[in-house]
Recover the amino acids of this structure.
């Protein structure tokens, strides 16, 4: 671990010979080509047009690698030493985001352009170290190519993803975000905020004890969060519905359920009963209106309709808890 953090056991770039620099360039081009193809594989099902972009970018890297290998053979023969980017101190690294599913289209496009910028900087530095004229020319040409290809994802996008296709892809990604995070999170927030109102305020008015009320609210919130999280994750694996990872949905639902309940349980850490109850009632009011806003903002529910449903339902549950606790 320490060796990775401080670069122990790695070579400095300045210590590399021209042979090693060429070998490093070859391995880097090979790695980048494989990364672009991994991006293409991860995008193909949902964004087939953008997948074509990264297939062409991979082909571009293959061409660079072939030119480097040909030059290496002429100068140093058939044996290429094993040296990779992780063996060189300060050399740019690639975070394995291509392993994540689903891939975010805008993130991948931005990452591709950053990869081109990093490659350009490497070839400029490598060309400055080369003394052989043919090596210096090739490295300089590759630096120029990477510079012109810095926006390669955008350039190819004009061919494969015109505005209408890109708009469709953005809409699909936004829909996936809603289905995986917003919808289960909103359901959890509503459940946690509304379902815990009755037990918390019933306990408050029945006991008049803020600490006991807080414990009831804490247990109700955590229990509801665990229940909602497992229910969301277990009832749909997302393969047929297209709602995404059940783990992500379960976490979104469970965490937001717990947060919704804790919102009006935490005020009962205040020792004075009426102060705590007043603050809790204000929090409930804010929570219910926030839910109505989220429904309107992300789920396109008319605001007045969302407010009527949430505020009326929450108000009835709140009143039930107070009446039961006061009986």
């Amino acid at each position: 671990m320490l060796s990775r953090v401080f670069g122990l056991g790695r070579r400095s770039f300045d210590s590399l010979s021209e042979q090693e620099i060429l070998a490093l360039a070859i391995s880097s081009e090979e790695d980048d080509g494989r990364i672009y193809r991994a991006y293409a594989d991860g995008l193909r099902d949902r964004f087939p047009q953008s997948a074509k972009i990264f297939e062409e970018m991979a082909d571009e890297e293959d061409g660079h690698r072939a030119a480097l290998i040909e030059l290496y053979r002429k100068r140093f023969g058939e044996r290429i030493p094993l040296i990779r980017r992780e063996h060189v101190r300060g050399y740019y690294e690639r975070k394995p985001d291509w392993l994540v599913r689903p891939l975010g289209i805008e993130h991948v496009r931005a990452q591709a352009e950053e990869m081109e910028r990093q490659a350009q900087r490497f070839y400029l530095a490598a060309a400055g170290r080369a003394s052989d004229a043919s090596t210096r020319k090739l490295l300089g040409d590759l630096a120029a190519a990477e510079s012109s290809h810095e926006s390669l994802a955008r350039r190819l996008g004009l061919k494969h993803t015109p505005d209408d296709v890109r708009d469709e892809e953005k809409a699909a990604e936004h829909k996936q975000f809603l289905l995986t995070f917003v919808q289960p999170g909103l359901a959890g927030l509503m459940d946690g905020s509304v379902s815990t109102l009755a037990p918390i305020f019933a306990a408050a008015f029945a006991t008049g004890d803020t600490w006991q009320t807080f414990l009831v609210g804490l247990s109700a919130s955590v229990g509801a969060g665990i229940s909602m999280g497992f229910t969301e994750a277990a009832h749909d694996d997302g393969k047929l519905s297209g709602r995404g990872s059940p783990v992500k949905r379960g976490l979104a639902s469970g965490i937001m359920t717990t947060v919704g309940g804790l919102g009006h349980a935490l005020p009962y850490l205040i020792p004075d009963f009426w102060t705590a109850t007043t603050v809790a009632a204000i929090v409930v009011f804010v929570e219910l209106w926030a839910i109505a806003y989220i429904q309107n903002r992300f789920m396109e529910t008319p605001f007045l309709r969302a407010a009527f449903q949430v505020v009326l339902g929450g108000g009835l549950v709140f009143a039930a808890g107070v009446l039961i606790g006061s009986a």
The chain has twelve helices and two strands. The longest strand covers residues 11-12.
